[in-house]
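# step 3/5: fold
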Amino acid sequence: MADGVLKETLKNATVSKTAKLCQLESNKTTIISFSSFIDAVKLQNRGIVETYLVGPDGKSLNFVSRTCQEATKAQTFSVDGSTYVVHSVAEANGEKTDYLELWSSRCGLVDVFNTTLLKKHEQIVSGAQFSGMGGLSLGGKDNAQILYIAERKRAEKYLYFGKGEAESGRNEFEKRDSWGEQFDDVTSTVPCVLNTQNGEVTVLDFLDLNVSYFNPIWLSDCKIAVIGYKPKPYKLGLIYCNNRESEVFIADLEAKNVICASQNLGNRCFSAILASPDSSAIIALASDPLGAHVQFKSFVKIDTKTLEVQISGKHAVESVPQHPWIDGSSFCFNMNDKADVKPMILNIRTMESKPFCMDMSATLSGTLKVLDYMDGKILLAKSSFSVPERLVLMNYDADQLIECPLPVKSLYEYFVKKVESETKGYYLIGPKDQSKARPCILFLHGGPHVCFVDAFTAYVTFFVEMGFNMVLANYGGSLGYTSESLTALPGQAGSADVLDCFNFLQAALNDGEWKCDKEKVAVTGGSHGGFLSLHLIGQYPSTFKVCSVRNPVTNIGSMLGVSDIPDWCFYEATAKLFTFNVIDTPEFYKTAWSNSPMNYVDKVVTPTQFHLGLKDKRVPASQGWEYHKALMGFSKAETALYEYPDDCHPLASPKAQTNNILETYEWFCKHLKL
């Protein structure tokens, strides 16, 4: 039964990657969307391309086509939506080949370009945080130039007494400093331009070799803007980290010169950029260096001629659409507001923001994210704990919204309750029928500076479908509440957040609106959520009957020297900003040990299961091994360990995700005697 429920859940758990409103013919608006899901039968990530036609009245949608394909790395549309580019990767015999596909929104596939065959650079880098805004950019002369990022060309490898010459290459075993988790083979990146009319690739090799570039965008036929990171003195992990010091550069492709557009801003970190419709300004999303990995951010407007700057207030920015402009002076973005995601508008003349529409939250419940805007039409992704993600088209006119829903997938009926203050909160989610006491799972997010929102997820849906009640904790320090509460957690990790989670659980177990069996309580989480789970079973050993964790932080001190984010270890343990000459001193290790789950491992009696990705550079598998062996040594708690050889920190492969969920379920059933 469990595997059948999981198959259905994963099929419904589609995630929108890109969607665009296109005016392909007069008075006819088309929607093209890309989404992905896990095929639990084939154990593959699959992509879906859907097309809809908007009715003449703007209040109806007609289904046109749905195509299932192999999952792609990234997609981007031209501003008018008439063409789009897809980055895909094929793998055979251990070798990967990059393809850039040019599509016409009206006629279909136009051309496919094998960039690996051209041998101008190494692999294309468009995935993870570098997809979406600026991962690919279509523009330039005749709208026929694809701007993208790739790893610079490397010298051929050599092996003594083998193939290759030592004088002309690099040693096969030499390790190069990389950008860490999921970018272990990314060391030095550069913008490249593919001319789709002749298939030629131009590498912008006049740019500084010591800088790694990401998120390029077109400013004109011959000018681009791009974010550049310079390691000092070594590289820190980039993915999920918005606090890496960087600059915004403007490059002239014809004159081959570069200026630092952010030179008047001091030390800043930029995670995204976009150009104003007339390219007179660059809008950059900025945060402070080397503090929390995820922070409240400001939008910075940089005049492309004078380099004068204007800075907005700070927002808990969730995302910015690829094409966000409403008019010449306003664009939309999505913002975390406590445990909700709300569409917002920023005016670049005043640098002030406001809700996209004052009554939007009342009109539509759940999570709403703007994907695109065109001619008074808003395209959003909507989901909730009980409704899988779907597209919603709305008309925007004098703050009046008319919902035009696209076909709805399976619906679920759940008990859902949100409890929150200004600084923290939690969700209760369970089956609709609460007539009998149900086993309860305390589910903890990682980060720690992210948050749970009312959105459909396979993990929560599966366990609720299997009869569990769940408590989702947004402890103090979670994103979306206040900047002050977010920055109050560092230095208190392992104590303040643990106490919040325990108090949430106690309140949930005693909440009269649902029924939980207090003798059947489980706890689970990944990364920092695993850190909290292990703290809880150590500090409150009689409360939890079973635990399952994914890539948990167990010993902050021993993690400092092996993780791609030593700054996280130092900042979250001490609340002090990281410096590159930090080492494991006895003083630091004492503080780190007191904040670590290993400090309480001798108290643990809770059966504990570990799921570890062996390619994890963020929280290396040694963290899980250390705690697992300690449990075996003390012999007070049963323990089991699963290793995933090809997975990184998120355990994102279909095999890892399905195995993790089903083994966790079996582990819970065994020890809760279900």
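# step 4/5: annotate
Confidence is low (pLDDT under 50) at residues 129-134.
# step 5/5: archive (pending)
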